[in-house]
Amino acid sequence: MEYSFIFIGNTHFFLDDFLKQNEIIKSVNPEFVLSEELENLKLNSEEKFKEILKKRQISEMTSFNEVEKLIKLCFEKKINLIGIDFNNFGFNKTLQNKIKNQKKLTKEEEKILEEITKKREKQHLRKILEYKEKTNKPLIIILGCWHLRKGSLIRRALKNYKIIAPINEKGEVLFEPNKQEKIEYGEIISNG
Questions:
Q1: What is the pLDDT of residues 15-61, one digit of tens each?
Q2: Which helix (H) or strand (E) holds 34?
Q3: Virtual torsion, Cα 6, 12, 16, 21, nearest 10 deg
Q4: Whole-model pTM?
Q5: Distance between CA 180 and CA 192 in Å, rounded?
Q6: What is the per-residue pLDDT for 168?
Q7: CA atoms within 13 A on the CB side of 160
């Protein structure tokens, strides 16, 4: 069965995320890879890929090293790599600093973060739908595992998808390492 959307859960480094991304991108050979970590960047020409590889700068929130292998793979395979988020994930300087340094947020900052997260998920969905119109091939979408949780906007709004992510013994997406000896990737298939 061919899926319209193939999601790869990004663990933000409790696993080597690129190993799974590389395997799936090479097997599907999509026209577009959509990535939360690319924020609002659009690498859809040889010039744009060369420019980012030379500049080696994404944003205050995403270091180039986090996405370098993905950028090089898509460049080599001539696959468009599209950011589906906001610059710096929509965070102001205060939030950027606190999140990067894992500092405690005030109640007010937590509310702001919650609002930004809702806007980000709507942006992810908007971009996914926009790029689905541009290709007949499956879209590969790399999103943080939390955005692929049961009941998330993405899972409620889309059909004909497959999620490939680390899962627990109940078959739910893992957001952080658990006490299991070995974390396994699993698949969640949409019904419909």
A1: 889 999 999 999 999 999 999 999 999 999 999 999 999 999 999 99
A2: strand 32-35
A3: 20
A4: 0.94
A5: 32
A6: 83
A7: 10
